[in-house]
Amino acid sequence: MSEVDNWTAREKALAILAVGLTLLFHGAVPFLMTPTLGQAVWTTGFAKSFANGPLYSIYAHDFGLPTPAAIAFGLAGALPTSWLMRLGLHASDAYAGMAALWLILAFCSAYLISRTFGASRSVSILSAVTWMSMPTIWAHAGYSMLSLGIALLPFYFLVALNLFLHPSVSGPKSKVFLHFAAAFVSVFMDGYTFVMFATGSSILLCYFLLTDISNRRYLLTIALPVQITSFTLAYLAYTIYVGKGQFETSPIDFFRGWGLDLSFIAIPTKGFHWFLDFLGVSVPRTDALYFGDASVWRTTFSLPVILAGLFAWWQARQRRSVATGFLAVAIVGFFMALGPTLKINAIKSEHIQTTQPRQGSAMMSAEYGFGPTGSIWISETLPGFKSMRASYRWSALGIFALWASVIVWAGSSRRGSVVPVATLILITFLNIPNLPQRFRSLTDNRAQFLQIDEDLVDKLRVSVKRNEVVVFAPWGNDFIANYLAPTVGFRTFNIGGDKNLTAAQENWPSSMLALSRDLDRSKIAFIFKILWDKDADVLVIPYFHMLWSPHLWPCVDQTTAKLAEISKEDWNTIPGFECPDQRKIALQPFLRELERLPYVEVTDDDLFATVRLRPQFSAEASRQTVINAAFGDIRYPIEFGSALQDSSFVLEQGWYALEEHHVWSQSSSKLVLPVPSDCNVGQCFAILHFSVFGASEQRPVAAEFESQAGDGSWNKRIISTSQDNNKIAVPLDGKKPYQEIVIKVPNATSPQALSGSPDSRILGVGILNANLEHIH
Description:
Number of domains: 3
Radius of gyration: 30 Å
Strand content: 5-15%
Largest sheet: 9 strands, antiparallel
Number of strands: 14
Structural class: alpha+beta
Helix content: 40-55%
Shape: elongated
């Protein structure tokens, strides 16, 4: 059927209704719903930061200090969101509007693929609805741009098919441009679907090269170079933007843990498919029993489309070539989705469930599977593939390819054939979740987003001045920091997103690095130090959870969201996700310790506490007086343990948190020791007793010490062949109240690198104590 034919009123009404229902189903309705909460908060933080800058801004300057932060994935979503926010839309509505734009493109692309293969308008609209109903799209909404990237697979493959097929129609220039555009959109939307697009389209291109003899010259001289060049340039553009070619690879047990279990394909998870729940064929699944996380089993039920796709491939005899190409794509997609080990209802042993509960044992060793699949070499070696650590996500490519096979069948069937139409309707029907529950959740997302503004943003505006540098402690994967900083108007070191966090840490001051994990007495010195060194103007101790509260505000027991019982159970298993009032009570002893410091003032609120340097210590003269007094009060011997007073003055730079009887340096550090007044007569030496991490006869480690003593410099280099029982005498200058000592360990390494320990800190020397030796 020609596209120039006029649309009938019925077809127009059907198309408008289908698009409207699709947007409603996905929650992409500004002023009413938001598709997700946590990732929307994270993304709109970047978008707001872009919007605070020039129109061309694509880096965040409000969080992830000290360097501008590139969004690790999802620029193709954050940038349009920022444009909508510039127009005055609230962050939640701008996110929903951005999602609507991409989902409409996905819907139209699915429609056009169907038309490409000869389906009628009505059937093509139905096929687009079927695609947009796939759980692999809507159940991934919590992963933001991954969901949109999967939804856009029809757009990516439509562009590829237009390039590969019908070379004589209209000339290749527009097709080439669209292919480049699609490659760039996909790489900046989501890395997983970029690799799927590159892999799947390359399989189709190879298949056409083998089967389409009449167009082989065109495919070799135009399509193949465009295919290679577009993906190469897109990848290079991404690496230039984020500043690195690839992120750290994960162990192969991660690929296993997040591999697709065949039982997840065949049996749906309870609570996610309305009709199948009604029939009682779905089963409950949690990470207490299964490897990976909930996304692995919630998004992968696909038996209806698999059966329909295989049947369609068998039936589509008129278009056997294209259908077989899609079947090859599906086979590769599902093969890679399995991960390195075949799993069929693989569950954790009772021992693991007890000793490493839930996400503590998400990764899976080979012994729990049925045997290797043969993909381990691919996942460990090939660029792109080795970054696809959540293996199950490959199933989205397989699901798309089998849906496309059904479309080829529908397009090649006789006009009026009801079997393909009935198949599409059945797949759509089986994909439907509990709609009242889903719509309530989508409206709750927007309501909670607005509540974050009302409860938290307004209070922070009172407590934090515009353009101040803020530190949230302890730090972690702080999703909500992305949103708070550009919205309130302050700047912060904190940042959300594991890849973004890793990049930011490379430039953090050592006192910031030390403020991870739980707050205890050993962290007080670093809180004081980061304020004293003027790295930050104010430190905020949040009582809300920086990662999980933006996913469910403010906590499970106090949220206004109407949660199903199965959701409450999942939320309650998250370690440390307490309500603000509970967290506040737990931190009161720590805050009382902080208040005893004469140099800081602590202000407490119901959602957070703030810590500032007292105004009288801002002037340089007052600061120097405090420093001199502090070193005058320090007496030898100095024990470098958790009880060390004024450690923030002594441990100047490059140190980790104090441990019970020692403190570890980084590869380069600065130690400041007091010089007693009687050292101006005779000669004083500070005798440092220390460990050298990893030193042994087989692995000698050099440690270098430098200082200014008297009128010249002093330095000494020792080669240690033993980790313990090392010491050095450092001459002290009696004319100074204190003296700096620089310590460098060029070959410092981590326990992780040396012995496989989970500890990834780069450890230099561990100072135990310092004694004074006075020679008259």
